[in-house]
Amino acid sequence: MPKKRELSPLELYAEKHKAVSKVVDSIELHHFGAYTSAAEAHLKDAEGHIDYSKLEDAAVQGKFAEHMRDFYVDKARQYFGMSKETKLTEAQIEMLLSAYSGITHSELLQTLRTHGEKFTVDEFAKLITDPRQGIKAAIRNKLLPHTYGHITREQLPGLVKEMGLEDRVDATKMDVEDIVPFLASYNTNRVVPMDLYKRKVYHKAEQKTGTGG
Questions:
Q1: Looking at the predicted structure, is the pLDDT value of residue 207 above 80?
Q2: From the CB of residue 13, how many other CB atoms can be counted at a distance below 10 Å?
Protein backbone atom coordinates (compact mmCIF):
# COMPACT_ATOMS: atom_id res chain seq x y z
CA MET A 1 0.00 0.00 0.00
CA PRO A 2 1.57 3.32 -1.06
CA LYS A 3 2.47 5.71 1.69
CA LYS A 4 0.11 8.67 1.97
CA ARG A 5 1.72 11.91 0.84
CA GLU A 6 2.40 14.32 3.67
CA LEU A 7 0.47 17.55 3.37
CA SER A 8 2.34 20.81 2.98
CA PRO A 9 1.84 23.41 5.75
CA LEU A 10 -0.51 25.33 3.45
CA GLU A 11 -2.52 22.22 2.58
CA LEU A 12 -2.73 21.26 6.25
CA TYR A 13 -3.97 24.78 7.09
CA ALA A 14 -6.70 24.43 4.46
CA GLU A 15 -7.72 21.02 5.83
CA LYS A 16 -7.86 22.29 9.43
CA HIS A 17 -9.72 25.44 8.38
CA LYS A 18 -12.37 23.35 6.63
CA ALA A 19 -12.76 21.19 9.73
CA VAL A 20 -13.19 24.26 11.96
CA SER A 21 -15.77 25.73 9.58
CA LYS A 22 -17.79 22.51 9.71
CA VAL A 23 -17.81 22.56 13.51
CA VAL A 24 -18.74 26.26 13.72
CA ASP A 25 -21.51 25.95 11.11
CA SER A 26 -22.93 22.89 12.88
CA ILE A 27 -22.99 24.69 16.23
CA GLU A 28 -24.73 27.65 14.60
CA LEU A 29 -27.51 25.36 13.37
CA HIS A 30 -27.74 23.78 16.81
CA HIS A 31 -28.26 27.24 18.33
CA PHE A 32 -31.27 27.85 16.11
CA GLY A 33 -32.46 24.30 16.72
CA ALA A 34 -32.33 24.94 20.47
CA TYR A 35 -34.30 28.17 20.17
CA THR A 36 -36.88 26.73 17.76
CA SER A 37 -37.41 23.64 19.91
CA ALA A 38 -37.90 25.77 23.04
CA ALA A 39 -40.27 28.16 21.25
CA GLU A 40 -42.38 25.29 19.91
CA ALA A 41 -42.62 23.80 23.41
CA HIS A 42 -43.25 26.93 25.48
CA LEU A 43 -44.42 29.89 23.38
CA LYS A 44 -47.42 28.59 21.44
CA ASP A 45 -50.87 30.03 22.14
CA ALA A 46 -54.16 28.15 22.01
CA GLU A 47 -54.24 28.43 18.21
CA GLY A 48 -50.73 27.09 17.82
CA HIS A 49 -49.09 30.42 17.03
CA ILE A 50 -45.88 31.67 18.62
CA ASP A 51 -46.67 34.27 21.29
CA TYR A 52 -43.51 36.09 22.40
CA SER A 53 -45.41 37.87 25.19
CA LYS A 54 -45.21 34.59 27.12
CA LEU A 55 -41.52 35.42 27.67
CA GLU A 56 -42.58 38.12 30.11
CA ASP A 57 -43.49 35.32 32.54
CA ALA A 58 -40.58 34.36 34.81
CA ALA A 59 -41.72 30.74 34.93
CA VAL A 60 -41.75 30.51 31.13
CA GLN A 61 -38.33 32.13 31.00
CA GLY A 62 -37.00 29.41 33.29
CA LYS A 63 -38.56 26.60 31.27
CA PHE A 64 -37.35 28.14 28.00
CA ALA A 65 -33.76 28.40 29.26
CA GLU A 66 -33.86 24.85 30.64
CA HIS A 67 -35.18 23.52 27.32
CA MET A 68 -32.36 25.19 25.40
CA ARG A 69 -29.84 23.97 27.98
CA ASP A 70 -30.97 20.37 27.57
CA PHE A 71 -30.83 20.67 23.78
CA TYR A 72 -27.24 21.98 23.96
CA VAL A 73 -26.19 19.31 26.44
CA ASP A 74 -27.49 16.57 24.13
CA LYS A 75 -25.55 17.98 21.16
CA ALA A 76 -22.43 18.51 23.27
CA ARG A 77 -22.56 14.94 24.56
CA GLN A 78 -22.73 13.70 20.96
CA TYR A 79 -19.82 15.90 19.88
CA PHE A 80 -17.55 15.00 22.80
CA GLY A 81 -18.54 11.32 22.77
CA MET A 82 -20.13 11.40 26.22
CA SER A 83 -22.67 8.80 27.25
CA LYS A 84 -26.16 10.01 28.10
CA GLU A 85 -25.85 7.99 31.30
CA THR A 86 -22.93 10.12 32.50
CA LYS A 87 -24.22 12.25 35.35
CA LEU A 88 -23.20 15.91 35.29
CA THR A 89 -23.29 18.49 38.06
CA GLU A 90 -24.68 21.94 37.36
CA ALA A 91 -21.15 23.33 37.25
CA GLN A 92 -20.08 20.64 34.77
CA ILE A 93 -23.10 21.43 32.59
CA GLU A 94 -22.17 25.12 32.59
CA MET A 95 -18.60 24.25 31.60
CA LEU A 96 -19.84 21.90 28.87
CA LEU A 97 -22.18 24.53 27.44
CA SER A 98 -19.50 27.19 27.56
CA ALA A 99 -17.06 24.95 25.69
CA TYR A 100 -19.54 23.77 23.06
CA SER A 101 -22.21 26.40 22.50
CA GLY A 102 -20.40 29.49 23.78
CA ILE A 103 -23.21 30.38 26.19
CA THR A 104 -24.13 28.92 29.57
CA HIS A 105 -27.54 28.18 31.04
CA SER A 106 -27.09 31.07 33.49
CA GLU A 107 -26.26 33.47 30.65
CA LEU A 108 -29.29 32.30 28.69
CA LEU A 109 -31.58 32.83 31.66
CA GLN A 110 -30.17 36.30 32.31
CA THR A 111 -30.65 37.22 28.64
CA LEU A 112 -34.27 36.07 28.79
CA ARG A 113 -34.88 38.09 31.96
CA THR A 114 -33.33 41.16 30.36
CA HIS A 115 -35.19 41.02 27.04
CA GLY A 116 -38.43 39.27 27.92
CA GLU A 117 -40.82 39.28 24.96
CA LYS A 118 -38.21 41.10 22.87
CA PHE A 119 -36.09 37.94 22.85
CA THR A 120 -37.51 36.97 19.48
CA VAL A 121 -35.86 34.67 16.97
CA ASP A 122 -34.52 37.77 15.20
CA GLU A 123 -32.99 39.07 18.43
CA PHE A 124 -31.53 35.64 19.11
CA ALA A 125 -30.06 35.58 15.59
CA LYS A 126 -28.19 38.81 16.34
CA LEU A 127 -26.75 37.24 19.49
CA ILE A 128 -25.46 34.32 17.44
CA THR A 129 -24.44 35.79 14.09
CA ASP A 130 -23.19 39.32 14.79
CA PRO A 131 -19.88 39.31 12.82
CA ARG A 132 -17.94 41.07 15.57
CA GLN A 133 -19.56 40.23 18.89
CA GLY A 134 -21.74 37.23 18.09
CA ILE A 135 -21.33 33.81 19.65
CA LYS A 136 -20.48 32.22 16.28
CA ALA A 137 -17.60 34.67 15.77
CA ALA A 138 -16.36 34.04 19.31
CA ILE A 139 -16.33 30.26 18.80
CA ARG A 140 -14.56 30.62 15.46
CA ASN A 141 -11.95 32.93 16.96
CA LYS A 142 -11.23 30.42 19.72
CA LEU A 143 -10.74 27.63 17.21
CA LEU A 144 -8.76 29.50 14.54
CA PRO A 145 -5.35 29.10 16.29
CA HIS A 146 -5.79 25.36 15.70
CA THR A 147 -5.65 26.00 11.94
CA TYR A 148 -2.13 27.41 12.01
CA GLY A 149 -0.70 25.93 15.20
CA HIS A 150 1.46 23.52 13.18
CA ILE A 151 3.29 26.31 11.34
CA THR A 152 6.80 27.25 12.44
CA ARG A 153 8.86 30.30 11.56
CA GLU A 154 11.23 28.09 9.57
CA GLN A 155 8.35 27.20 7.24
CA LEU A 156 7.44 30.80 6.40
CA PRO A 157 9.73 31.15 3.35
CA GLY A 158 8.16 28.04 1.81
CA LEU A 159 4.66 29.31 2.52
CA VAL A 160 5.41 32.72 1.02
CA LYS A 161 6.80 31.03 -2.09
CA GLU A 162 3.81 28.68 -2.36
CA MET A 163 1.51 31.72 -2.35
CA GLY A 164 3.62 33.36 -5.07
CA LEU A 165 4.79 36.25 -2.90
CA GLU A 166 8.52 35.65 -2.70
CA ASP A 167 9.24 38.72 -4.89
CA ARG A 168 7.10 40.98 -2.70
CA VAL A 169 7.46 39.63 0.83
CA ASP A 170 10.60 38.90 2.85
CA ALA A 171 9.67 35.89 4.95
CA THR A 172 12.80 36.19 7.09
CA LYS A 173 11.32 39.35 8.61
CA MET A 174 7.97 37.74 9.47
CA ASP A 175 6.60 36.00 12.54
CA VAL A 176 4.02 33.22 12.34
CA GLU A 177 1.28 35.65 13.42
CA ASP A 178 2.08 37.82 10.38
CA ILE A 179 1.30 35.02 7.94
CA VAL A 180 -2.14 34.23 9.39
CA PRO A 181 -4.14 36.84 7.40
CA PHE A 182 -2.23 35.76 4.29
CA LEU A 183 -3.33 32.17 4.85
CA ALA A 184 -6.96 33.15 5.38
CA SER A 185 -7.09 35.24 2.22
CA TYR A 186 -5.22 32.73 0.06
CA ASN A 187 -7.33 29.83 1.31
CA THR A 188 -10.53 31.65 0.37
CA ASN A 189 -9.57 33.59 -2.76
CA ARG A 190 -6.24 32.13 -3.91
CA VAL A 191 -4.81 35.64 -3.76
CA VAL A 192 -3.20 37.83 -1.09
CA PRO A 193 -4.09 41.52 -1.52
CA MET A 194 -1.27 44.04 -1.34
CA ASP A 195 -2.84 45.90 1.58
CA LEU A 196 -1.92 42.94 3.81
CA TYR A 197 1.79 43.55 3.35
CA LYS A 198 2.20 47.04 1.86
CA ARG A 199 4.41 49.26 4.04
CA LYS A 200 5.04 46.40 6.46
CA VAL A 201 8.60 45.68 7.59
CA TYR A 202 8.57 42.50 5.52
CA HIS A 203 7.37 44.22 2.33
CA LYS A 204 10.04 44.18 -0.35
CA ALA A 205 10.17 47.66 -1.83
CA GLU A 206 10.03 47.76 -5.61
CA GLN A 207 13.40 48.19 -7.15
CA LYS A 208 13.62 51.39 -9.13
CA THR A 209 15.61 51.22 -12.34
CA GLY A 210 17.12 54.18 -14.13
CA THR A 211 19.63 55.11 -16.72
CA GLY A 212 23.11 55.69 -15.54
CA GLY A 213 24.70 59.09 -15.94
A1: no
A2: 23
